[in-house]
Design goal:
With about 140 residues, the chain is an all-alpha fold. Helix content is about 70%, strand content about 0%. Helix 1 (about 15-40) packs across helix 4. The longest helix is centred in the first third of the chain and has 27 residues, at about 15-40. It is elongated, with a radius of gyration of 25 Å. The relative contact order is 0.12.
Length: about 140
């Protein structure tokens, strides 16, 4: 006859299991942050605007606002807001070196545990140089 565990016989997770879960969460967070940073710093399609061209367009909008009808004024105000936000962001430089270092530390074990291949990492935007530093082997298939 099989013994059933009663409520008093149950034990919580072992310390090693808790540590493994914590390690997995930490690695997943490092991978997520690095991939999100890569995505946000990836060049966008089309012609890039310079701060000078944004300033020029903002001045043009100021001039147009004076004589604009109500609907055009609405659209110009939104354009002005969007351009000002873009101008504010243009000074931000995305330094991902710390995120990259942490990613390099965890990428190999995370990838092995989750079954992520070299090609998948590359498709996600991770450079070959970073994968080499992380020790992720090139695979075929």
């Amino acid at each position: 006859m099989a013994t059933q565990k009663t409520r008093t016989d149950r034990r919580g997770m072992s310390a090693s299991h808790k540590a493994a879960l914590a390690k997995g969460r930490e690695e997943g967070l490092a991978v997520r942050r690095y991939l999100e940073a890569l995505e946000s710093s990836r060049p966008r399609r089309g012609r890039r605007r310079t701060p000078a061209s944004i300033e020029k367009r903002l001045k043009s909008i100021d001039t147009q606002l004076v004589s604009a009808d109500a609907l055009s004024r609405l659209h110009l105000i939104q354009q002005q807001k969007d351009l000002q936000e873009e101008l504010d962001r243009s000074g931000d430089t995305h330094d991902i070196t710390d995120l990259e270092k942490h990613f390099i530390d965890v990428a190999k074990s995370y990838g092995e545990r989750k079954g992520i291949t070299y090609g998948t990492w590359r498709s996600a935007g991770v450079s070959a140089a970073v994968l080499q530093k992380a020790g992720v082997p090139r695979t075929r298939g």
